Amino acid sequence: QVQLVESGGGLVQPGGSLRLSCAASGNIFSIYTMGWYRQAPGKQRELVASITSSGSRNILDSVKGRFTISRDNAKNTVYLEMNSLKPEDTAVYYCNVDLLTVQRGARLREGYWGQGTQVTVSS
Fold this sequence. Notes:
Layout: E1 2-7, E2 10-12, E3 18-26, E4 28-39, E5 46-51, E6 57-59, E7 67-72, E8 77-82, E9 91-103, E10 106-113, E11 117-121
Protein backbone atom coordinates (compact mmCIF):
# COMPACT_ATOMS: atom_id res chain seq x y z
CA GLN A 1 0.00 0.00 0.00
CA VAL A 2 1.34 3.42 -0.99
CA GLN A 3 0.26 6.75 0.44
CA LEU A 4 1.02 10.28 -0.68
CA VAL A 5 0.49 13.00 1.87
CA GLU A 6 0.48 16.62 0.73
CA SER A 7 0.84 19.72 2.83
CA GLY A 8 1.56 23.42 2.53
CA GLY A 9 -1.41 24.90 0.69
CA GLY A 10 -3.38 27.88 1.88
CA LEU A 11 -4.45 31.45 1.26
CA VAL A 12 -1.80 33.97 0.28
CA GLN A 13 -1.79 37.51 -1.08
CA PRO A 14 -0.50 38.25 -4.58
CA GLY A 15 3.26 38.37 -4.55
CA GLY A 16 3.43 35.97 -1.63
CA SER A 17 5.05 32.55 -1.31
CA LEU A 18 4.07 29.03 -0.39
CA ARG A 19 5.91 25.74 -0.20
CA LEU A 20 4.12 22.50 -0.97
CA SER A 21 5.36 19.12 0.20
CA CYS A 22 4.36 15.61 -0.82
CA ALA A 23 5.70 12.61 1.06
CA ALA A 24 5.37 9.07 -0.25
CA SER A 25 5.28 6.13 2.12
CA GLY A 26 4.55 2.43 2.03
CA ASN A 27 5.95 -0.56 0.22
CA ILE A 28 8.11 1.45 -2.18
CA PHE A 29 10.98 -0.17 -4.02
CA SER A 30 12.00 2.74 -6.22
CA ILE A 31 10.74 6.20 -7.19
CA TYR A 32 11.06 7.62 -10.68
CA THR A 33 9.52 10.93 -11.73
CA MET A 34 7.79 13.12 -9.13
CA GLY A 35 5.61 16.00 -10.17
CA TRP A 36 3.03 18.61 -9.35
CA TYR A 37 -0.18 19.22 -11.29
CA ARG A 38 -2.88 21.77 -10.72
CA GLN A 39 -6.51 22.13 -11.61
CA ALA A 40 -8.43 25.39 -11.49
CA PRO A 41 -12.24 25.48 -11.53
CA GLY A 42 -13.58 24.77 -15.00
CA LYS A 43 -10.14 23.95 -16.38
CA GLN A 44 -8.24 20.80 -17.18
CA ARG A 45 -5.55 19.50 -14.90
CA GLU A 46 -2.12 20.67 -16.07
CA LEU A 47 1.44 19.70 -15.28
CA VAL A 48 3.18 22.44 -13.32
CA ALA A 49 6.56 20.86 -12.75
CA SER A 50 8.26 17.50 -12.65
CA ILE A 51 11.63 16.13 -11.61
CA THR A 52 13.18 12.81 -12.56
CA SER A 53 15.23 10.55 -10.32
CA SER A 54 18.39 12.01 -11.86
CA GLY A 55 17.26 15.57 -11.18
CA SER A 56 16.10 16.68 -14.62
CA ARG A 57 13.32 19.24 -14.34
CA ASN A 58 10.41 20.26 -16.49
CA ILE A 59 8.60 23.51 -15.64
CA LEU A 60 5.42 25.03 -17.03
CA ASP A 61 6.30 28.20 -18.97
CA SER A 62 3.88 30.40 -17.04
CA VAL A 63 5.61 29.62 -13.73
CA LYS A 64 9.23 29.63 -14.85
CA GLY A 65 11.33 31.88 -12.68
CA ARG A 66 8.71 31.80 -9.91
CA PHE A 67 8.29 28.11 -9.03
CA THR A 68 11.00 25.61 -8.17
CA ILE A 69 10.64 21.86 -7.84
CA SER A 70 12.99 19.76 -5.76
CA ARG A 71 13.08 16.34 -4.13
CA ASP A 72 14.65 14.63 -1.15
CA ASN A 73 15.19 11.01 -2.12
CA ALA A 74 16.05 9.98 1.43
CA LYS A 75 12.61 11.18 2.55
CA ASN A 76 10.69 10.16 -0.60
CA THR A 77 9.45 13.73 -0.71
CA VAL A 78 8.92 16.26 -3.47
CA TYR A 79 8.60 19.99 -2.90
CA LEU A 80 7.22 22.89 -4.87
CA GLU A 81 8.49 26.30 -3.86
CA MET A 82 6.13 28.96 -5.20
CA ASN A 83 7.15 32.62 -5.18
CA SER A 84 5.62 35.78 -6.63
CA LEU A 85 2.25 34.09 -6.63
CA LYS A 86 -0.49 35.46 -8.88
CA PRO A 87 -4.26 35.09 -8.71
CA GLU A 88 -4.10 32.86 -11.78
CA ASP A 89 -2.06 30.36 -9.77
CA THR A 90 -5.17 29.64 -7.71
CA ALA A 91 -6.00 25.95 -8.05
CA VAL A 92 -5.97 22.61 -6.31
CA TYR A 93 -2.44 21.27 -6.52
CA TYR A 94 -1.85 17.51 -6.77
CA CYS A 95 1.39 15.63 -6.53
CA ASN A 96 1.99 12.64 -8.74
CA VAL A 97 4.65 10.02 -8.16
CA ASP A 98 5.75 7.32 -10.58
CA LEU A 99 7.09 4.46 -8.49
CA LEU A 100 7.84 0.78 -8.24
CA THR A 101 6.45 -1.52 -5.60
CA VAL A 102 7.07 -5.20 -4.98
CA GLN A 103 3.95 -7.25 -4.38
CA ARG A 104 4.10 -11.02 -3.87
CA GLY A 105 7.53 -11.06 -5.45
CA ALA A 106 6.43 -9.13 -8.55
CA ARG A 107 7.48 -5.62 -9.38
CA LEU A 108 4.67 -3.24 -10.27
CA ARG A 109 5.19 0.25 -11.64
CA GLU A 110 2.34 2.73 -11.19
CA GLY A 111 1.56 6.40 -10.85
CA TYR A 112 0.02 7.59 -7.60
CA TRP A 113 -1.83 10.82 -6.83
CA GLY A 114 -1.92 12.88 -3.68
CA GLN A 115 -5.21 14.04 -2.19
CA GLY A 116 -4.77 17.61 -3.44
CA THR A 117 -4.14 20.83 -1.57
CA GLN A 118 -5.89 24.14 -2.23
CA VAL A 119 -3.79 27.17 -3.12
CA THR A 120 -5.68 30.46 -3.22
CA VAL A 121 -4.00 33.70 -4.23
CA SER A 122 -6.17 36.67 -3.38
CA SER A 123 -6.03 40.05 -1.71
